[in-house]
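Sample intake sheet
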Amino acid sequence: MATANIQTQQDKVEPVQKHQSTLNKPQTPLIIGGLLVGAVLLIYLMMTQNGAQPLLLVIGLLLGYTLFHARFGFTSAFRRLMSVGNGQALRAHMVMLGVAVTLFAPILAFGFSFFGDEVSGYVSPVGVSLIVGAFLFGIGMQLGGGCASGTLYAVGGGRSVMFITLLFFIVGSTLGAYHLPFWTEEMPAFEPVSLATTTGLGYGGAWIVSIALFGLISWITLRVEKKKRPPKMPPLPSEKGWKRIFRGSWPLFTAAIVLAVLNALTLMTRGAPWGVTSAFALWGSKAAQFFGIDVASWGYWQGANAAALESSIFADSTTVLNLGVILGAFLASAAGGLFKFSKLRPGNVVASIIGGILLGYGARLAFGCNIGAYFGGIASFSLHGYIWGVLALGGTFVALYLRPLFGLSVPKPKDTFC
């Protein structure tokens, strides 16, 4: 098989990452510093923003803490399945989605909200924009070394190359925002499809269909594993008992449940599910505006988006969530004694530049990333979320043949980084 040959050749070039068997000592000065930064930011948000923003910072911190502790990956889950047939992480995705739809259904049906805001899920059109964007994102996350959430928590953990991925993720998102009117207005697309409202199933019927689909996908991954017999993911070192909450690895399925609960809390706090990449477009557009580019004339920044461009970034709920994720991952890495800037290699840098641009551009075209489109879309009962997942898997498959061009391996399942 071609992918197996790629893996064999690359194992000679780049050895598979080895996991330590014991925990490091906590990096106490970093933990104290991170807590101080978090406290200052929290106080600032309480003084200058509405009541939702401080709560979103805390939710973001918990998201980042959870992602890092479990090394909960989307990029690695897709890569393991497509390269060697290991579906353990993808089954964790199905648990996460199963809990999410269970929580989202009553929230969306009855409009539960902490601050009285209107509550709505992510339901987007299905068309050329989605297909191209999700496919590009699938390639980008395998070259860039992370998905949207993975990039944030890897930056928080000190993985140096991911700072480059993040920078060009922002560049790609800004370019995508500039070009988005062409893709959405000139390219063909169907109207958004909700399994709950468009089909007439209601949220109860849509929940049953969703759970059945998650079960089917899990069964398929088990059949693939039975046929290919891939190696299992090795356990990561962890504390025992209650100390495991703060140090060491969390089981993937535990993290899956926690992430689903936190996404539901996000929905009730700001009226929309967890998202990541719209903030990247905002940051990049504000930077372009600073250098004299007339960003306000872009179609993307007309209508409802115009207010975000004119306001402080701290008024943007997605920005606050992103800052929380980075800070939470930083605290988790410091608690485990793992925060350390890694070395850069030329191949990684080039791949991160290309991958970052594809990630950002693809996310804008596809109405979101692995969080907004895949996690949030499917949790919102949107058909586009499922299509996003299929196309991102297709992009992952293509990327298996592109990674060796940059000296990157097609790893065995021991690679647990997103």
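Comment: Residues 139 and 399 are 5 Å apart (CA to CA). The chain has one domain: 26-231+244-406.
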